[in-house]
Specification:
Elements lengths: L1 H30 L28 E8 L6 H4 L1 E7 L1 H6 L10 E11 L5 E14 L10 E7 L9 H11 L15
Antiparallel strand pairs: 1-2, 2-3, 3-4, 4-5
Bound molecules: heme C.
Length: 184
């Protein structure tokens, strides 16, 4: 009988502790909100600038492509490029509609002819980035555009250059302004 009473008292005390713990947890989550999870949050210093998308080379690889010497885009885009999509952007392929939070990266490298005649990936040239935020980038189809020179972590585009990105990507309005397509 005494053991029974003891057990009830212990259960009540534990329940009480549990409630206290959850109240504390709620309070602490209020006191310290989670940091913004968005990998390419907007840079507050310039309204249109985009932060470098850390870790994008481990996102989903959409495709690669080669722009060879002689191509009209060679000066600015010549070389080997790889396109990566974060989770949100990946879900947009196929739908032709990309939700806010979508981030796409176009990673461009020089190419090198090796001694045995094969072609290797050379040094990085630059990384082009698109970030979807329908309100913030309403003037450019809901996408913000950025370019990071190799090794640099701040967007080097002028507002006029961003307009140039958006003008060409507008040709793909019906595909959500995105050119690449998921490869089988
Ligand atoms: C003259 C047209 C043109 C211009 C200008 C242009 N792009 Fe693109 N962009 C493309 C094409 C075509 C692809 C797809 C390449 C492929 O499929 O391999 C692409 C792909 C991309 C991608 C990968 C997502 C997608 O649409 O497939 C990003 C990110 C990107 N461009 C960013 C930029 C940025 C930033 C600028 C401006 C600095 C820019 N682009 C300027 C034509 C353009």
């Amino acid at each position: 009988m005494r053991a029974e009473t003891h057990r009830i008292a212990l259960t009540a005390a534990l329940a009480c502790l549990g409630a206290l713990a959850s109240v504390l947890a709620m309070r602490s989550s209020h006191a310290a909100p989670e940091p913004e999870p968005e990998p390419a949050a907007a840079d507050p210093t310039t309204p249109q600038a985009i932060a470098f998308p850390q870790g994008y080379t481990r996102w989903t690889h959409i495709k690669s492509g080669l722009i060879p010497a002689g191509h009209p885009a060679f000066a600015s885009y010549g070389g080997l490029h790889h396109i990566y999509a974060n989770q949100t952007a990946l879900a947009g392929y196929g739908k032709g509609e990309f939700a806010d939070g979508s981030v796409l990266a176009y990673d461009l490298f020089e190419t090198r002819l090796t001694a045995d005649g094969s072609i290797d990936q050379g040094p990085r040239r630059h990384v082009d980035v698109m970030v979807k935020d329908a309100r913030r980038y309403a003037a450019t189809g809901g996408w913000g555009y950025a370019e990071f020179a190799a090794g640099q972590r701040s967007d080097r585009l002028s507002q006029a250059q961003r307009g140039g990105c958006a003008a060409c990507h507008a040709a793909r309005k019906d595909q959500g302004y995105v050119f690449s397509e998921l490869q089988g």
